[in-house]
Design a protein that fits this description.
Layout (H helix, E strand, L loop, with lengths): L13 E4 L3 H12 L4 E5 L11 E4 L2 E3 L11 H7 L13 E4 L6 E4 L5 E3 L3 H22 L14 H17 L1 H10 L4 H8 L3 H12 L12 H8 L2 E2 L2 E2 L12 H11 L3 E4 L3 E7 L2 E7 L4 E3 L2 E4 L3 H8 L7 H8 L7 E8 L16 E4 L3 H8 L12 E5 L14 E8 L9 H19 L7 E7 L1 H8 L35 E3 L13 H11 L5
Helix pairs in contact: 1-9, 1-15, 3-8, 4-5, 6-7, 7-8, 7-12
């Protein structure tokens, strides 16, 4: 790549649009190679969906995500990310049904389980081992661009061969089982192994969180595989809150980028990507200033990139049609509560309040919660994941007070009745559920901030309010993410690349989409 011209004061080797964690990962990787990199962020602070904000006087939220379960260890090592789990036991998951004592998964996704019969714990262990193995086969495809039909490279062949060898080593029966289960629904798989409704409900919740599917929808098991490709301290399925809390995530990626010599400009909204006859040459900011570079990396939603920043004549109607048809309607609402004191959830010990709390009574509960969303209605009995962030980061709340963060589904982006009237009704439902599981919590609520998918769209410039930048379903993964003509980070415009969660391999705090895109650019598009 040529060095920027000395006569062009605003010339860079690469411009990255968006200072979310993927954009910063891409910038850091490019910067470490000696490139001169500029990151442009429309908001007044970096971090994207991991950007913190004050939602009530003295109370802060760390952003949309409230725990880490997919940070790629190779990305972390390569970029020098200072994000480590707090010392002590692994973060547990407690599953509440409001009737029995909680089922508490300990270790990495239930290496041990409290509150269930020994036979059920053993059955869960067998299923867990199978799912972790199968997820490991798919994990081989996450750290490289997806194979391109008609242009399979030696790296693709090597990855495919390694995946096949992994199956062969497990034996013919295990290989057949992997092919049988790959596109199954999570409900049928759970029913094969388990009897405890709480454990079935947890698997259903984890397989469908953030996806427009119910546990009995075909291919819903893919969502659980996706979660289990994450690891913590070398163990699949783990989760953690880093030292300093989730508010430490965005600064860690910022430090990685800045240490690589990257320049980050906030409050700099891009108005247009400059392209001429199929090649990019930089961007024009909303204030009219022009910045030039032979490479532009878009780390924002693919629809925001091509529908608003690129001249349609540069891509063609067929490509734009495929981008418009990317399914990206969110289904999850985010609740932040300011509490005068820490709540007590029924049946949980004090230390387990610092873990993940899931309210999902059964597989049927999750399926019934999904059904209204198919018709543009929110669930009257939603399922949810809860974390108490201020237990890990005391700066989020005043002394003695507490914050609660919950991801609630299902809450459709296109609510038939409209969110103006729907939001207060949905909030009442959610608070009533919390009161049933943590009696007295209602008396401690000082402020409640509910962000629907429509709110998330506005706050974080995410079309549809979908935190994965598009559905994680079979037809929108690998060679189809976000669409066939832009699935390998390169796009129909020479020099323009995609690096957000809308690109392979998808969402979650992993850094892989941005890191992969940068590696692809540095390799000169060679696969």
């Amino acid at each position: 790549m040529k060095a920027p011209s000395a006569t062009a004061p605003h010339a860079y080797d690469a411009i990255v649009i968006g200072a979310g964690h993927n954009g910063l990962a891409a910038a850091a990787k490019l910067g470490r190679s000696g490139r001169r990199v500029l990151v442009l962020e429309a908001a007044n602070a970096p971090g994207g969906a991991a950007r913190g904000r004050e939602f009530a006087p003295g109370f802060r939220s760390a952003g949309l995500a409230h725990l880490v379960n997919r940070l790629d260890p190779e990305v972390a090592r390569d970029l020098g990310l200072s994000l480590a789990a707090r010392p002590g036991p692994a973060m547990p998951t407690a599953v509440l049904d409001g009737e029995r004592e909680p089922a508490v998964l300990r270790g990495a996704y239930g290496e041990a389980i409290d509150g269930v019969a020994a036979e059920e714990a053993a059955a869960f262990s067998r299923l867990r081992d199978k799912l972790v193995f199968q997820a490991g086969i798919l994990k081989r495809f996450l750290r490289r661009p997806p194979p391109q039909l008609g242009a399979i490279g030696i790296g693709d062949i090597s990855t495919l061969a390694a995946a096949g060898l992994g199956l062969i080593r497990k034996g013919r029966a295990e290989g057949r089982d992997f092919l049988r289960m790959l596109l199954m629904n999570v409900a049928d798989v759970a029913d094969e192994y388990l009897d405890d409704d709480r454990l079935k409900g947890l698997l259903a919740f984890d397989a469908t969180l953030g996806i427009h599917l119910g546990p009995r929808s075909p291919t819903s098991l893919l969502g659980l595989y996706y979660r289990l490709t994450g690891e913590v301290a070398g163990k699949a399925g783990g989760q953690f809150i880093p030292e300093g809390g989730m508010a430490a995530v965005a600064p860690a990626f910022v430090r990685a980028a800045e240490s690589a010599g990257v320049t980050i400009r906030c409050g700099a909204r891009v108005g247009r990507i400059l392209a001429d006859r199929g090649s990019t040459r930089g961007v024009v900011l909303a204030d009219g200033s022009e910045l030039t570079a032979p490479v532009v990396v878009s780390a924002i939603h693919p629809q925001a990139t091509f529908l608003y920043l690129v001249d349609p004549v540069e891509t063609g109607t067929g490509f734009l049609r495929s981008i418009r048809h990317v399914r990206s309607a969110g289904n999850v609402a985010k609740l932040d509560l300011a509490l005068s004191r820490m709540p007590n959830f029924d049946g949980l010990s004090g230390r387990d309040h610092a873990g993940r709390i899931v309210i999902a009574r059964s597989m049927t509960h999750v399926e019934d919660a999904f059904n209204p969303a198919k018709y543009g209605e929110f669930s009257p009995d939603p399922v949810m994941e809860i974390v108490l962030p201020s237990l890990a980061d005391a700066t989020l709340a005043p002394d003695g007070a507490c914050t609660l963060s919950a991801l609630i589904q299902y809450a459709p982006y296109r609510l038939k009745a409209g969110w103006e009237s729907g939001k207060p009704a949905f909030l009442r439902i959610v608070l009533d559920i919390l009161e049933r599981h943590a009696p007295g919590i209602g008396d401690t609520i000082l402020a409640a901030d509910l962000a629907t998918p429509a709110d998330i769209e506005t706050e974080y410039n995410l079309p549809g309010g979908h935190w994965h930048h598009g559905e994680l379903q079979a037809d929108q993964l690998l060679i189809n993410r976000p669409t066939g003509a832009a699935s390998g980070y390169a796009t129909p415009i020479e020099g323009l690349y995609l690096a957000s969660a809308g690109a392979h391999p998808g969402g979650g705090i992993s850094g892989l989409a941005g890191w992969n895109a940068a590696r692809h650019i540095l390799a000169g598009d060679r696969r």
